[in-house]
Structure to design on (350 residues):
C-alpha cells in the first residue's frame, strides 16, 4: 500500500514537473503548444511592446510601400488611353484608391471605436486618433482629384450630387473628430466621446457607397466592386488594383508611425503630470489616465 | 508619353497627391523627433515613469 502511494505521488510530481517545463518553454517561445510566436495579440495591448514591434516593422513597411508605389506608378504611366476619356483615365488610378481609403480609414477608426468602448483596449483610441489626419488627407485628395477629373469629363469641378456631397460630409466629419480631440485635454476622456461620434459617422459609409444607386447622380455607378464583376478592362483594372494596394500599404506605414508618435505624446503628458505632482507635492494631482 | 489636351489636369492630380503625401510624411517624421526630444528633456530634468523605465525605450 505504501509502495503504491509512493509510486502515485512520484507520478504526480513528474506530471507537475512536465507541466512546469512546458510552461517555461512556452514563455521562451512567447507562444503556446510549443509553437514559436514572436508576439501574442495580448502583448500588443502593451504600448511598450507595440513600440518595440513598430521599430522592427517600420523599415519593412517603408521599403514595401516604396517598391509598391514605384511599380504602380510605372503601370499607371504605361497604361493605354481610354477610347472615350483619352489620357485622363490616368487620374482614375489616383482618385479611386484615395476614395476607397477615405472610407476604409473611417472603417478602421470605427473598429478602434468599438475597441475603446467595448474592450477598453489601451491602443484602440491611439489607433483611431492616429488614423484621423491620414483619413482626412485621403478624403481631401479624393475630393480634389475628383474635381480635377470632373472638369474635363463633366465640364464642372463640382456638382452637389449625392456621392460628392456625402464624401464632403465625410471630410467634414474627419475635421470635426480632429477638432474634438484637440478640444479635450485628457486623451482618455476625449476617446469615449470621439468613439461614439465615429460609430455614428460610420452610417455615412453605406450612404457614400450606395449613393450612386439610390439617387440620380452625375457620378458614375460602381464599376469594380459590383454584382456581376468588374466592367473595367484588365488594362485599367490591374494598374488600379496595384495602386490601391500601394496606397493601402502607404496608409499602414503612416498609421503605424503616427501611432508610435501618439504613444510617445502620451508618455510626454504622463511625465509632465508626474513632474507637476512632484513639484507641487500634491499626491491627488491629476494622475496619468492612459497606461503608456 | 502624350497626355493629350488635358495634360495639365493629369499632371496637377499627380503633383497634388505627391505634395499631400510628402506633407503627411514630413509631419509624422517631425512629430516623432519632437516627441523624442521632449521626452529626453523631461528625463534630463528628473521626471521618471511609474515603471522606472526610460520613456524613450522601444
Amino acid at each position: 500500500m505504501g509502495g503504491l502511494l509512493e509510486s502515485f505521488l512520484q507520478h504526480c510530481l513528474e506530471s507537475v514537473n512536465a507541466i512546469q517545463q512546458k510552461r517555461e518553454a512556452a514563455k521562451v517561445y512567447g507562444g503556446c503548444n510549443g509553437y514559436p510566436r514572436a508576439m501574442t495579440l495580448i502583448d500588443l495591448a502593451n504600448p511598450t511592446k507595440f513600440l518595440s514591434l513598430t521599430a522592427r516593422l517600420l523599415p519593412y513597411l517603408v521599403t514595401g510601400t516604396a517598391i509598391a508605389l514605384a511599380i504602380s506608378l510605372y503601370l499607371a504611366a504605361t497604361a493605354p488611353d481610354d477610347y472615350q476619356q483619352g489620357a485622363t483615365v490616368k487620374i482614375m488610378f489616383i482618385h479611386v484608391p484615395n476614395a476607397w481609403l477615405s472610407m476604409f480609414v473611417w472603417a478602421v477608426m470605427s473598429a478602434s471605436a468599438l475597441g475603446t468602448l467595448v474592450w477598453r483596449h489601451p491602443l484602440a483610441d491611439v489607433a483611431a486618433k492616429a488614423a484621423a489626419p491620414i483619413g482626412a488627407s485621403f478624403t481631401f485628395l479624393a475630393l480634389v482629384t475628383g474635381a480635377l477629373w470632373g472638369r474635363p469629363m463633366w465640364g464642372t469641378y463640382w456638382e452637389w450630387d449625392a456621392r460628392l456631397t456625402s464624401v464632403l460630409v465625410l471630410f467634414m466629419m474627419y475635421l470635426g473628430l480632429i477638432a474634438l480631440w484637440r478640444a479635450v485635454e485628457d486623451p482618455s476622456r476625449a476617446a469615449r466621446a470621439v468613439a461614439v461620434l465615429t460609430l455614428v459617422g460610420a452610417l455615412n459609409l453605406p450612404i457614400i457607397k450606395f449613393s450612386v444607386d439610390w439617387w440620380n447622380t452625375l457620378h458614375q455607378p460602381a464599376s469594380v466592386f459590383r454584382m456581376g464583376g468588374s466592367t473595367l478592362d484588365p488594362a485599367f483594372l490591374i494598374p488600379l488594383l496595384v495602386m490601391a494596394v500601394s496606397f493601402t500599404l502607404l496608409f499602414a506605414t503612416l498609421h503605424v508611425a503616427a501611432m508610435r508618435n501618439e504613444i510617445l505624446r502620451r508618455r510626454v503628458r504622463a511625465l509632465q503630470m508626474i513632474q507637476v505632482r512632484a513639484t507641487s507635492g500634491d499626491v491627488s494631482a491629476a494622475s496619468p489616465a492612459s497606461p503608456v | 508619353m502624350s497626355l493629350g489636351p488635358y495634360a495639365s489636369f493629369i499632371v496637377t492630380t499627380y503633383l497634388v497627391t505627391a505634395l499631400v503625401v510628402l506633407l503627411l510624411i514630413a509631419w509624422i517624421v517631425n512629430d516623432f523627433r519632437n516627441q523624442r526630444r521632449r521626452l529626453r528633456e523631461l528625463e534630463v530634468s528628473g521626471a521618471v515613469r511609474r515603471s522606472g523605465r526610460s520613456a524613450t525605450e522601444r
The radius of gyration of chain A is 26 Å. Chain A has one domain: 57-280. The helical segments of chain A are 2-29, 47-78, 92-119, 124-154, 162-183, 187-201, 204-214, 234-280.
